[in-house]
Request: fold
Amino acid sequence: MTLEAWDCDPQTGALPGVRVVGFHGEFDGDQTPAHSQPVWVDDHDRMLRIVKPGWLQRDADLAPLPPGKCWVARLSETPVPEGPLPGVGTRVGPWPARFGWVMATLGPREFNVLLGLRMDASDALPSPVDAFLQWLLMGETRSDTLCCERIGHLVHWYCSAADEMELRKRVRLVATTALIQVAQGPSPVQLQKTSYWLARAATNDGDVYRAAAGLQRALGGPSPRIDSLLTTVVHRRDKAETASLLADATRWLTEACKANG
Amino acid sequence: MHAPSADPAANDREAAADQIALRVPLVHFPARLPMQSTRVLGPGWAEWDDLSSNSVRGMPAGSDDFSQLRAQHVFAYAGPCCYSGGTAQAGNAVIYLYPRVETDREGEASPFDSGSLEDPARLQPWAALTLAERWEFLRLHTSEMKDWRARFRRWLLGCYEDPWRYLESTPDPWDAGLPDRLDPPELLAHNGPAGRIVHGDSCGDRRAWTWEVRFHERVAWRRHLQLVHVGNAANERANDLADDIERETGVRPEVRSLPHDALPDFYSLLEHSGEILRECITP
Reply:
């Protein structure tokens, strides 16, 4: 691994000479929404990693860089082969790389509620998220302007971390509403699926606890699946606090179901 | 187990080394394949009964000692999952196997990554030696499967004032879990942060002080799976796998996911590895 100080446009985050050719991992239709780390390559198709601040701790070479520079680690001296990415990766793009951008992935579950994800932006220019959702509605395969591509039953969008978060917030709102509706219905399987959907769309730990409450209701009580889901919270708590937060979320779901009639 | 001493700090050190050496799981990225079946790569490793060496799978291998070693074994770390993320992305899931997986198994272990002695070698200063000399160095530091945990315990006490630091998986691959001492001392002087000053990036990282355990031919992973670690989006799938294994073996492996705000890749799985190991050792 070789480290280099790389040019990085302080305004746009553009990294000259770096392209995005895919992302780490591979998702299926029941694993969305998802966000993932892009796969970057240089002009010679050699794999890179954009180094986040603090990654390397004691290296004297890694003094803070001035604006307009960022650290890039060259992971290999040999080019990434054409075709499917080696290991567990998905090839999309190529698109010009930007510092701090990520890959967002949506699937059939989100496509079914696309209209619910759009904001009423009649008085303003569409945000990047709205432009992406508008593109999705048009059913096209690929846009190099928006950096998005439809592959099979999934759509991948290379976007800023803020836009990915905004997109996920919108999915989370729809998933929360769906959870309340499904929790009143007769199908534990559908409730389990919807709970996992909300967990994947989580933008804060509260969402995970609400998803866990849905899962608990679907499974009829405590389960290792609930403990496992709660490992996705950012701020881990001790057993008592976790139980208390789960109880709060369970009460919230009960009240929301009542309010929803 | 150690005999108690009058010094509480020494007792704590000994107790830590005892626990780690006895309980550290064996950590493996299964074969750079996804956990679940996929469109592009076909069946995922979750459908395999065993993890098998390249020779068992009929894959060709070179004739030198290192190539034969690689062909005939399944590799795991007794420590953080610091396998190189290099050119090919390692799998999107990490498995942690109970120590009992070693029972009655042929195999061996060494206190550093054997691959770093293969061409192009990175473990300094041995990288400059001939392949035969590097092989000799590896054999000198290799223990048989049945003995390695006792040697690992002594190694932990010899290398760390606080043995728990061995499990550190902080993001810097050259710095994480850096020992206070190593035997031979050249390992510490020529690899890690000190090695980078002398050799640049062509020196060993954390793998220069992470124990590697090598199983001969195959590992029945499903019966010995302690924990599987995946990204947030794969939590449901991994729990389906845990259900299958519980039905099959009567024991449910734990499923851990990355936090919902983490971008899942080799590095994020590695960064959480130390914390998971601690929880496996001290449940």
Summary: The two ends of chain B are 19 Å apart (CA to CA). Chain B touches chain A through 52 residues (CB under 8 Å). Chain B has one domain: 11-227+242-281. Strands of chain B lie at 26-28, 51-52, 73-78, 93-97, 107-110, 143-144, 211-216, 218-219, 225-230, 254-257.
